[in-house]
Specification:
The protein is built from 2 helices and 25 strands. It is globular. Helices cover 9% and strands 37% of the residues.
């Protein structure tokens, strides 16, 4: 009964409290946003992993209710899939099928799935060499259809199965090839990998490192070089940004000019491990590693973002109970859509 009351009460509070917009920042010579601030466009229990579809639908995970939601072009909310297996990060493949990271916990399946066009669920991977994953969190896809996903564990750690030769738990990054082969591409080069994105040319893999359960550990964004076969180049790790002792980054998006849009920070501290020295919002980092813009979001926690809209110039942001949006000046890089556009352009020039 209490949960039902809260579910009815919280949206009413947020609808009232979040109708205003907050100012965004960027350099005068490099205007990044068309509108003065993000606006709420949908409210549910706890939101994550947004993915936009050209039909005008925005899909996102509602972790509190173990479901995947769909916001249609009119703004109406629909349940797309329930139960979701504790879905987190979402992404469309090149055929427009929804991929999902299903996490840990009592409702979680700890696997990567694909929802087919007829609604059936295909399991892409649910183990690595016979050991269950820690908790698939976020994913990206390269030009060859190879899927990279992060596998951190937030919460109880007693059932971690994947370990190195020394017996240490591995919270790694994995690659799924089109033939179904799974390769572990990162082990301990990242402490607790979360958000992930690949560049349009497949040369670099960005990984957010966010161990938010332990003080004084790296909460950074790393860049790794990739080989043509999709493996991480040894000793290629480069720090792009460090969030210090604040809440580190979560999910992220990428625009066509190579800028990263990273969901991070907190408005209210979560002691002892997360301070408010990093304000809650979306941090825009250039491909050189310079902070060039910031979108403040006054709702904890800011979890993820993705580009969408007919021109891919709308940034959708998940934070707390709310799905936000803001217009940008730069076009987003959305793998399955941007690569199709590139192929059409290449064919028209021949």
């Amino acid at each position: 009964m209490i949960r039902q009351l809260l579910d009815n009460f919280i949206p009413a509070i947020l609808t009232t409290a979040l109708l205003g917009t907050a100012p965004v920042t960027s350099s005068a010579k490099d205007k990044l946003f068309e509108t003065p601030g993000p606006k709420p466009v949908g409210i549910v229990a706890f939101v994550e992993g947004p993915a936009w579809h050209p039909t005008g639908n925005v899909y996102f995970s509602d972790g509190g209710n173990n479901r995947i939601m769909r916001r249609d072009r009119t703004g109406a909310m629909h349940v797309y899939r329930q139960p979701s297996g504790a879905a987190n990060g979402l992404l469309f493949d090149f055929q427009g099928r929804l991929l999902a990271c299903e996490g840990p916990g009592p409702n979680g399946h700890r696997r990567i799935t694909r929802t087919e066009h007829d609604g059936t669920i295909t399991v892409l991977t649910n183990n690595y060499r016979g050991k269950k994953y820690a908790g698939p969190n976020d994913l990206t896809i390269d030009s060859r259809g190879r899927i990279y996903f992060t596998d951190p564990r937030y919460g109880p750690r007693t059932d971690l199965e994947i370990r190195d030769k020394q017996g240490r738990a591995v919270e790694g990054v994995y690659r799924i090839d089109p033939d179904g082969t799974v390769t572990q591409v990162i082990t301990h080069q990242v402490d607790r990998p979360n958000g992930i994105h690949i560049t349009p040319d497949d040369r670099y893999l960005y990984v957010v490192d966010n161990n938010n359960n332990t003080p004084n550990v790296a909460r950074a964004v790393w860049r790794f070089s990739l080989t043509e076969k999709g493996n991480v180049v040894a000793n290629s790790r480069k720090k792009m940004h460090d969030f210090g002792r604040g809440r580190g980054g979560d999910g992220m998006a990428l625009d066509v000019d190579g800028r990263l849009y990273i969901a991070a920070g907190r408005t209210v501290a979560s002691p002892p491990n997360e301070t408010t020295e990093v304000a809650g919002g979306v941090y825009v980092i250039s491909k050189e590693g310079k902070l060039v813009g910031f979108i403040p979001i006054k709702e904890d926690s800011v979890t993820n973002c993705t580009f969408g809209g007919k021109d891919l110039k709308t940034l959708y942001i998940t934070a707390g109970h709310t799905l936000w949006s803001i217009q940008t000046t730069a076009k987003g890089f959305v793998p399955w859509l941007s690569r199709q556009d590139s192929q059409r352009n290449d064919n028209s020039s021949k």
